[in-house]
Amino acid sequence: MPGRAKPKAEGTSRANPPRKPPTKSASPTAKRGPASEARPARARTGEQAPVLLSGGNPRIAKADGDTPVQAYIAAMPDWKRDVGKRLDALIVRNVPGVRKAVKWNSPFYGVEGQGWFLSFHVFTRYVKVTFFNGASLRPAPPGPSKHQDVRYLDIHEDDELDEVQLAAWVKQAAALPGWTP
Hints:
Helix content is 22%, strand content 18%. It has helices at 66-75, 79-94, 163-175; strands at 63-64, 99-103, 106-111, 115-122, 126-131, 151-156. Strand 3 and strand 4 (115-122) form a beta hairpin. 25% of the residues are buried.
């Protein structure tokens, strides 16, 4: 009949091409998805190891409380885990009742009703500590920012951590109005 389209075999139209079976990756650690996101092999216990993003930063779901922060710290690679533990302990020791959360794949520390005063993030060669009102601290942390109020402290593997100075910055930062997203 003229004007009538000939029926096509099922699954062969452009809108519904035949499906191919999924292929398995040659390696359990092969990259999938965005180039910066590697999926690690499963641990021997059957649990999946934490996912590390570019620079070795752990991918931890957003959540409030100490539990996600401790999961982030536990997933930090190599020497950076020790830095994370020391930072967390120093903050808890110097800011009673500190509020914790993981946001944007970074632990955040704040004071209830005042906002966030500090965060840290893992990079390939260092851990970056962010003081949201760091320009108001005395002396100001050394790392400048494109944001007027923010200052950074980069901690490298062989750096001596001046815990006395860091504690002073943490106490000062916690006493200031914090950052509220």
